[in-house]
Specification:
single chain, about 400 residues, mainly alpha, disordered C terminus, binds zinc ion
Amino acid sequence: MEYNYLAFGLPAFFLFVGLEYIAALRKNKKHLFKYDSSVANLSIGIAERLMNLFISGSFFELFNYIYEHHSLTHIPNVWYVWVLLLLATDFVWYWYHRLGHEINLLWGAHIVHHQSEEFNYTASARITTFQALIRNIFWCVLPFVGFHPSLVMTILVVHGAYSFFTHTQIIGKLGWFEYIFISPSLHGVHHASNEKYLNKNYGDLFVFWDKLFGTYMEEDEKPVYGLTHQLNSYSFMWQHFHYFMELAEACRRVDGIWNKLKIVFGSPEDLDQDIRPELERRFLPNKGTKELSARFKLYVSLQIVLSIALLFLITLLFKNLNLEDKVFGSLFIMVTLIYVGALLEQRKWIYYLEYVRFLILGGYLSSVFDTYGFLTAAVFVLFILNNTAPLKELYLRLIYQSEYGRFSLKKK
Ligand SMILES: [Zn+2]
Ligand SMILES: [Zn+2]
């Protein structure tokens, strides 16, 4: 068996989230964690880690191809190359991140990282697959200038791990450290929507790129975290796609390819701010605002634990799994994440997502045992269930329990 030990990044992540939570409790700062927001952050992170398993290998191949055939030079493997590579990686990051804020198409992917109204370690997980794709395209510069792909892959793990630690309010300002490195306070400024903090501190590891390119700002007033116009939704799909939908709507409203391109590659600041509320009215009616019960939270948490356990297994055993294991396992996780988002929004159609999960399970068992029996049985059971209306009511009552009685479920 060949194991992928990067899987142990998952328990390490939760160890630090747990430690941060304990520290927050000790400092009487329980408000730094908000249940539904943390669940939404984790859901997005789980999806990205899962998809990354499928794309990271291809990017390593691409880095190798660029290094072998199109690199400017081959930088020799001596000790100071690591220092040069770290500087180069951080420099590329600065521009990847800054352009992610300045160009609509890239902001559509990066905005997800900024939707969180909380600033804790769970917010660091808010990276989407789209962002991972864009980031990897930027990283192609490194093998192009001559860094060996194996070194690049190693430094990317280290560089990526550092940014986890800059997402916390438990650690305050860090004195002299901030002359060289991005601290949690400095990155908190980047996540804030205060007027004076907008478009500041794009750096990931080193602070001097921001100073050099005029985007440096210290924390001198209390940051308000999140977007200038808060998203107001925990829907998994909406969080991923709302900005691309806004861009599509903005493009629809103008004539000519040139005007459309000006929107796609234009600045987020110039996008019509009325489009989002309009789309929200169309796609997210009747948002509930009631407190969730402890029992309901336990049920949602179990979905997340199930997804994380599956993700851990798929990551650890990735190289040994069949295509069926990977595809069905991934589909099950993705549908569960959409399900979790719909649960947080108290949607009635979670019932149909249960159908989909059931079919995925039936399909998987059919492929493992090489018989259509399981899938046929699953379809048959669903047919019976779908025609037994009280079961749907019972299911929703069971899931939402007190919520079901306290406030009416949304129609969509
Ligand atoms: Zn950003
Ligand atoms: Zn961040």
